[in-house]
Automatic annotation (TrEMBL):
Keywords: DNA-binding, Transcription, Transcription regulation. It comes from Guyparkeria halophila. It comes from the Bacteria. This is LysR family transcriptional regulator. Belongs to the LysR transcriptional regulatory family. Residues 1-59 form the HTH lysR-type domain. One of its GO terms (molecular function) is transcription cis-regulatory region binding.
Amino acid sequence: MDDFRTWHWLETVIELGGLKPASERLHRTPSTISHAIKQLERRIGVTLVETRARRIQLTEAGSILLEHMRPLIRELEGVRGVIEQFRDTGASVMRLAVDQVFPHDRLIAAMETFSTEYPHTRIELFETVLGGGPAMFRDGEVGVYLGLEPVGDHTGVQVGRVRFVPCVGPNHPLAEMAAELPDDERLSEGQLRQHRQVVLRDSHPERSANAGWLGAAQRITVDHLHTAVELMRSGLGFGWLPEHEVRTETDLEVLPVDDGLCPEAALMLYRQRDLMASPAHQCMMESLVDSVTG
């Protein structure tokens, strides 16, 4: 590491034309830089610089060697930036669990903001359903959780609310029934139960609850919201989707039902208590909040 640093100092001396300007940029004394270069020459057995007309210049060998060293110097500077970030933030990996009902465009916007501030921190995103996120949060597998399920004695920040509405593809029998209803009538829960329902599987490893389950005679259970949307679009069943998701799905229809059948829940954001002082985790929290409110 010392040799790489000295090569960087040598490059700076040649770039700026002398020890004094290099010392000002590097925050080292001219004598320290000069001594380091001489020590490097002794270690490798090659004269790297010579003084001509009171200016330090590279020897022919020094010029060739410095050209070979420049890519390594750039790489070392990148590593140094990573080290400084980890030292300042204490976060080399950001692990967060986000319920699949959270809008993907807002999640991507939050991660873009975070990545700009912390380009060297890796992000591990776990897309969860119902109790899966809280389980990972309680077990310490993630530092941040964003979702609908409460997390024991932890205090979260509400960032919004999610309302669920029943949806089908345009060729589904329920869509035809809805089209024939008078304006003041709604489909009943009993009518919905007579048709196959698409539900999301709880990602909690020890629970078997399903999101939006009405107790229909037939059902298709899937792991991901996008799969559920595709099944509804194809006409294989109906299901409950976040209202914001339906706005972007032009080939899905919202079924007319009483408001009491449409569940609504608070979207909560949690952070582990031992990470309260982490600037990186604070940045991720703020990015997620801003993605909702901005």
